[in-house]
């Protein structure tokens, strides 16, 4: 079977998110494979230019690790092309391959094939997902070493069926955990995030995964709000299972 992937970009950088909770790869060097296309529409999405896959006609890849210089190829990419780029960006100190997007699980068969190939090559697989498709997650869970699963806050306005989405995300987290992945939940918070919703997410995650609270960039909420959210989550999840996460790559000006 020859797989085709609709991609946005591949580059080598430090993982800028995840804070210090168990399962985080914050500060680890990764090769990022960004898939094009997403079914959700988070109002603050920083990858908006890639969420309509039909408009992403080319994907770009860094020509030298950490150079920020790119070459372009037409979509879809072949699995062999992607593997060649990954190998060319392997600096020998790579912690894992990050599959992000857009939403990587929308292309579950090619994603699975790429994860299998990466494992064969000795890389760990780090999945960054909105977690809205537990049945697809189940197809790849055995290949996932690390997973960062977003819990979409109401204020993200990602979808009309927000509560259903949250339940799916929690289901995905449980599937990944059961399969042995190191998994944590990531909640992007804004000034409009409600404390009662934080309590709801925390109660759903109890016993399943730690939670990082990540302010939306650019940050619009107060430190007081952030402290309150943290406290409410820690009260339910336990003090070892909550942390903050900031998008540090944006402060460092790296990819
Ligand atoms: C672009 S998404 C791709 C993966 C997947 N679709 C998801 O949402 O988890 C990668 C990560 O960036 C986060 N993110 C995107 N835009 C952001 C922003 N403006 N501020 C903070 N986090 C953001 C998302 O919440 C997610 O954790
Ligand atoms: N450095 C860096 N860290 C990241 N962590 C999550 C990212 C993403 O867009 O998925 C990301 C990204 O785009 N760059
Ligand atoms: S789910 Fe991820 S890629 Fe999709 S719109 Fe939200 S942040 Fe962007
Ligand atoms: Mg990003």
TrEMBL record:
Coiled coil: none annotated. Its EC number is 4.3.99.3. PROSITE patterns: RADICAL_SAM (PS51918). Keywords: 4Fe-4S, Iron, Iron-sulfur, Lyase, Magnesium, Metal-binding, S-adenosyl-L-methionine. It comes from the Archaea. The keyword Iron applies. Pfam families: Radical_SAM. It is an enzyme of class 4 (lyase). Substrate binds at residues 14-16, 34, 100. Pathway: Purine metabolism; 7-cyano-7-deazaguanine biosynthesis. Binds 1 S-adenosyl-L-methionine per subunit. S-adenosyl-L-methionine binds at residues 44-46, 102. [4Fe-4S] cluster binds at residues 38, 42, 45. HAMAP family: QueE (MF_00917). Catalyzes the complex heterocyclic radical-mediated conversion of 6-carboxy-5,6,7,8-tetrahydropterin (CPH4) to 7-carboxy-7-deazaguanine (CDG), a step common to the biosynthetic pathways of all 7-deazapurine-containing compounds. PANTHER family: 7-CARBOXY-7-DEAZAGUANINE SYNTHASE. This is 7-carboxy-7-deazaguanine synthase. It comes from Thermococcus barophilus (strain DSM 11836 / MP).
């Amino acid at each position: 079977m020859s797989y085709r992937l609709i991609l946005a970009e591949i580059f080598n950088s430090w993982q800028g998110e995840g804070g210090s909770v168990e399962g985080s790869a914050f500060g680890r060097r990764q090769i990022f494979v960004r898939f094009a296309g997403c079914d959700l529409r988070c109002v603050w999405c920083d990858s908006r230019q890639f969420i309509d896959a039909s408009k992403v006609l080319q994907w770009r890849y860094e020509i030298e690790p950490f150079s920020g210089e790119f070459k372009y190829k037409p979509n879809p990419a072949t699995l062999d092309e992607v593997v060649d780029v990954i190998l060319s960006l392997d600096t020998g100190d790579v912690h894992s391959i990050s599959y992000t997007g857009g939403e990587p699980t929308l292309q579950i068969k090619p994603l699975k094939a790429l994860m299998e190939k990466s494992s064969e090559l000795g890389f760990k697989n780090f999945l960054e997902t909105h977690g809205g498709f537990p049945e697809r997650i189940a197809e790849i869970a055995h290949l996932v070493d690390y997973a960062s699963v977003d819990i979409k806050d109401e204020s993200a306005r990602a979808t009309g069926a927000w509560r259903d989405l949250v339940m799916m995300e929690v289901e995905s987290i449980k599937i990944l955990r059961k399969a042995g992945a190191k998994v944590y939940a990531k909640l992007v918070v804004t000034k409009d995030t409600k404390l009662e919703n934080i309590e709801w997410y925390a109660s759903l995650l109890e016993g399943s995964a730690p939670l990082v609270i990540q302010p939306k960039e650019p940050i619009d909420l107060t430190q007081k709000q952030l402290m309150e959210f943290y406290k409410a989550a820690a009260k339910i999840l336990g003090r070892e299972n909550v942390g903050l996460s900031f998008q540090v790559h944006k402060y460092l000006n790296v990819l």
